[in-house]
């Protein structure tokens, strides 16, 4: 008899992450790719990468879950048994690996969040607003301006002894200030270190504003791989910052754990990566709400829909979607 395994997918606007775990929450397969504005295509590519790593002779996926901005769409694609928001998924994943964590800092491609934890339970959180300053996309755009790969930012920043002060309260001010400092002759190392400090300060002054940040602190998301930003957080908070080697996968890991805990079993088949999926928006005119209903089709057949606020909306809503 094959052993049980559980699939978790975290699909965001910038990156798509996936993990497969066993009954002991050990990772059997994992992948991290760019979404590139195509969540359906990204999900298919991710599943292909996971399939190549997964031992199908020993394990079978008996439940799956999705999180992230496109969680409903991808959840419909893979017939997920559970769909949850990113706060829940990140909290579950992090507290499983680090039971004593008190503060979770997370910076992704276009969003940032902070989660406060007490006794293993998330008790408060906050997310960034519309401004993308201090996110992975912000750092990526500045790296192109400086002609440096963003992956090299961290080590270059650590070589600086006099980080440049850069205003990062918004992307417009930051870019203007960056150009000014370049023209003034500041070294590339100091400017990059200043950008890393600006990311940490922007996060603490916006996402973390009014929050009581207690140690142990876990930093996750793609930006947590930047040693310069990690160092900036250490100096700003005056405490150690823990970066888990799988921190960039934590949302996917958390939703996989929740899939394993769920009593709803929906076996997953990798053949889904070969199916054709389409979405269509329908404006319902059956009542004054005029709801915009999103319909998902698999090989031309309607498999799911959401968005209607009353029973007059023709497509059905799946009962397992819980935000």
Written account of the structure:
This protein has 323 residues and is of the alpha/beta class. Helix content is 33%, strand content 25%. The chain is built from 9 helices and 13 strands. It has helices spanning 39-53, 71-78, 86-97, 136-146, 153-157, 171-183, 188-206, 227-237, 250-261, and strands at 3-11, 15-21, 27-34, 59-67, 82-83, 103-107, 112-118, 121-127, 217-220, 241-242, 277-283, 292-298, 301-306. It has a 5-stranded mixed β-sheet with strand order 3-2-1-4-5, sandwiched between helices. Strand 2 (15-21) and strand 3 (27-34) form a beta hairpin. The longest helix is centred in the middle third of the chain and has 19 residues, at 188-206. The protein starts with a strand and ends in a 17-residue tail after the last strand.
A few lines on this structure:
This protein is an alpha/beta fold and 323 residues long. The chain contains nine helices and 13 strands. It has helices spanning 39-53, 71-78, 86-97, 136-146, 153-157, 171-183, 188-206, 227-237, 250-261, and strands spanning 3-11, 15-21, 27-34, 59-67, 82-83, 103-107, 112-118, 121-127, 217-220, 241-242, 277-283, 292-298, 301-306.
**Count of DSSP E strands?**
13
What is the helix content?
A: 25-40%
Overall SS class: alpha/beta
Instruction: Spell out the helices and strands N to C.
Output: EEEHEHEHEEEHHHHEHEHEEE
Q: Could you give a short account of the major beta sheet?
A: 5 strands, mixed
Low-confidence stretches: 316-323
Gross geometry:
globular
Cα radius of gyration in angstroms: 21 Å
């Amino acid at each position: 008899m094959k052993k049980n395994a559980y699939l978790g997918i975290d699909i965001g606007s910038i990156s798509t992450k996936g993990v497969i775990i066993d009954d002991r929450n050990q990772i059997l397969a994992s992948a991290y790719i760019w979404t590139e504005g195509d969540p359906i295509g990204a999900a298919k590519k991710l599943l292909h990468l996971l399939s190549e790593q997964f031992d199908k002779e020993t394990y079978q996926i008996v439940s799956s879950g999705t999180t992230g901005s496109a969680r409903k769409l991808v959840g419909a694609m893979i017939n997920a048994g559970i769909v949850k928001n990113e706060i829940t998924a990140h909290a579950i994943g992090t507290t499983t690996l680090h039971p004593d964590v008190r503060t979770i800092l997370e910076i992704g491609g276009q969003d940032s969040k902070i989660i406060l934890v007490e006794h293993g339970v998330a008790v408060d959180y906050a997310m960034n607003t519309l401004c993308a300053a201090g996110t992975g996309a912000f750092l990526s755009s500045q790296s192109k301006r400086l002609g440096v790969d963003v992956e090299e930012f961290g080590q270059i920043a650590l070589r600086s002894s006099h980080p440049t002060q850069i205003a990062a309260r918004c992307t417009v001010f930051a870019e203007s200030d960056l150009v000014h400092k370049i023209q003034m002759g500041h070294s590339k190392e100091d400017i990059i270190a200043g950008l890393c400090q600006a990311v940490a300060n922007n996060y603490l002054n916006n996402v973390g504003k009014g929050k009581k940040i207690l140690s142990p602190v876990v930093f996750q998301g793609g930006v947590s791989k930047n040693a310069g930003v990690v160092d900036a957080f250490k100096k700003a908070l005056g405490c150690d910052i823990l970066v888990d080697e799988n921190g960039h996968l934590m949302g996917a890991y958390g939703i996989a754990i929740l899939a394993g805990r769920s009593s709803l079993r929906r076996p997953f088949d990798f053949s889904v990566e070969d199916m054709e999926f389409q979405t269509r928006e329908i404006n319902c005119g059956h009542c004054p709400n005029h709801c915009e209903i999103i319909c998902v089709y698999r090989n031309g057949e309607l498999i799911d829909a959401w968005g209607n606020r009353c029973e007059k909306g023709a497509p059905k809503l799946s009962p397992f979607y819980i935000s």
